[in-house]
Every structure is written in C-alpha cells, then in structure tokens.
C-alpha cells in the first residue's frame, strides 16, 4: 500500500500541471494501484497490463464502479475509462502510444535479462511518456527480515539490486535517452539506526526535461 500511495502522490504532484491524464500500470498483478489512483480527477484513462491472464481475470471486478465511484464521476470534466490488457512491457503495443505516465511497481526484478535490456527502448523511445516510475526491492534491506534464508524475496525474482546497482541502471537509461532526467527515493523505512541501508523498496522517477523548467525536488521520502 505504501508503494501505491507514493505513486498516487507523484501523479498528483502540481509540477505536472495537470498534464498526466493517461497512465499505464505494467505488471499490475491484482490491479491494486487502481484503487489509489482512480479518484485522481485529472486522469482520463487507466490501463492495467499483466502477462498473467488468470490473475487479470480474477481481479477485473475491481475496476467496476462502486456507488462511491459513481458519485465521484459527477466531479469529473471527462469520464474515466479503464482498460485491462493481457500483455508485457516488452510488447511495442500501439495502444500504449499517447501514454503520459508509465508505472512499474516491483516489476523489473521479475524480468529475464533480454526483456530488461529491451525495456528502455519500449518505454523511453516507443511510448516516450512524460513520467515513468520504477520501484524495485532494495537487496540491502533484506537483512532486516527475520528468518530470511532465501536468495531473494520472491521465488520468481531474477535479481535484486543494491541502491548503487539500481542507480547505475537508471543512469544508463538517461545517458541513452538524454531528454529524460531521474531522481531517486525510497519507500518503507527501516527502524531507527538502519538508515544506512536505505528503504525496503527503492524508486526511480524519470521525467522528460520539457515537463519542467527547474529540477524536480524530492517528492516522496522514506
């Protein structure tokens, strides 16, 4: 939930001046982010994408408007549309063109290296969003988990990065796509005295430089 709330805060940040209207959540899994961002009045279209058809089928009911949702619709200048697609971030899908924000919450660590290597082109060249946010586990934080005996937090993880490794990956992206800048933050602080190992999740916030005349100040603090 902390990750979802962090994403909500980023999308709602006034620095975007209401320009974030169409959002895609890659690796949406149980469509959990939708609940946090559906009431953002500036959003016109939320797209949820996952490779797992069954999990999408089970959770698609979550996007059906509730009574409270119907009330909030009256406050909108334009109706919110929601699309659920069975697909991958590796796909160069024309339906993703015109996306303002790409969100990838705890996704990249599930990707095989060939998909991870193709991700920058798909996101930053093909989709070319105004904003893109990636979160991923901070492997340095794992020592705080009691009885943690496995290599990674989840059996499907292909890797888990240190903060240095994540920053190196992100900086390679902005070197190749110089119209973007990136800032780093964290989600889920540890107990007092563990500040040196960072947060549970690390976050990279990529934004197109034409979106703002001044550097983006930190948006979320762990």
Automatic annotation (TrEMBL):
Keywords carried by this UniProt record: Magnesium, Metal-binding, Methyltransferase, RNA-binding, RNA-mediated gene silencing, S-adenosyl-L-methionine, Transferase
Cofactor dependence: Mg(2+)
Superkingdom: Eukaryota
GO cellular component terms listed in the entry, alphabetical order: cytoplasm; nucleus
EC number, UniProt record: 2.1.1.386
Entry GO MF terms: metal ion binding; RNA binding; small RNA 2'-O-methyltransferase activity
InterPro entries listed in its UniProt record: Hen1, SAM-dependent_MTases_sf
Biological process (GO), any one: siRNA processing
Reactions mediated catalytically: small RNA 3'-end nucleotide + S-adenosyl-L-methionine = small RNA 3'-end 2'-O-methylnucleotide + S-adenosyl-L-homocysteine + H(+)
PANTHER family with a match to the protein in the record: HEN1, SMALL RNA 2'-O-METHYLTRANSFERASE
Similarity comment: Belongs to the methyltransferase superfamily. HEN1 family.
Protein name, as recorded: Small RNA 2'-O-methyltransferase
Naturally occurring in which organism (per UniProt): Aphis gossypii
């Amino acid at each position: 939930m902390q990750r979802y709330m962090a994403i909500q805060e980023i999308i709602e940040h006034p620095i975007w001046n209401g320009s974030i209207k169409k959002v895609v959540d890659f690796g949406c899994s149980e469509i959990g982010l939708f609940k946090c961002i559906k009431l953002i009045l500036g959003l016109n279209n939320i797209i949820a994408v996952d490779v797992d058809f069954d999990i999408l089928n089970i959770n698609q009911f979550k996007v059906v408007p509730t009574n409270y949702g119907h009330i909030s619709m009256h406050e909108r200048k334009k109706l919110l549309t929601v699309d659920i697609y069975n697909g991958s971030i590796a796909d160069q899908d024309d339906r993703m063109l015109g996306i303002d924000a790409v969100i990838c919450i705890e996704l990249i660590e599930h990707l095989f290296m060939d998909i991870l290597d193709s991700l920058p082109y798909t996101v930053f060249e093909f989709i070319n969003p105004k904003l893109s946010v990636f979160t991923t586990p901070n492997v340095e934080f794992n020592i705080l988990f009691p009885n943690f005996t496995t290599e990674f937090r989840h059996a499907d993880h292909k890797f888990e990065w240190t903060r240095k490794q994540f920053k190196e990956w992100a900086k390679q992206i902005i070197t190749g796509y110089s119209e973007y800048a990136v800032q780093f933050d964290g989600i889920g602080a540890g107990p007092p005295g563990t500040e040196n190992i960072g947060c549970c999740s690390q976050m990279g916030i990529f934004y197109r430089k034409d979106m703002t005349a001044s550097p983006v100040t930190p948006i979320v603090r762990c």
